[in-house]
Amino acid sequence: RGTAKRRKDKTLTYKKLNMKKSALLVAAIIAAAASLTSCGGSDKGEGKGKDSTPVKPAVEGTTNIRWYDLDSVSNNYKLVELLNSEAEAAMNSYQSFARQKSSEIAALQKKIEDKMRNNGYLSEESYNNDMRDYQNKANSAQNAIAQREQQIAEQAATQQKQLLDSLENFLNDYAKSKGFDVILIKTPGTHLAPELDITDDIITGLNARYKAPTEASK
Question: Which segments of the chain does DSSP mark as H helices, in order?
Answer without folding.
Answer: 2-7, 21-33, 70-76, 78-117, 124-178, 199-209
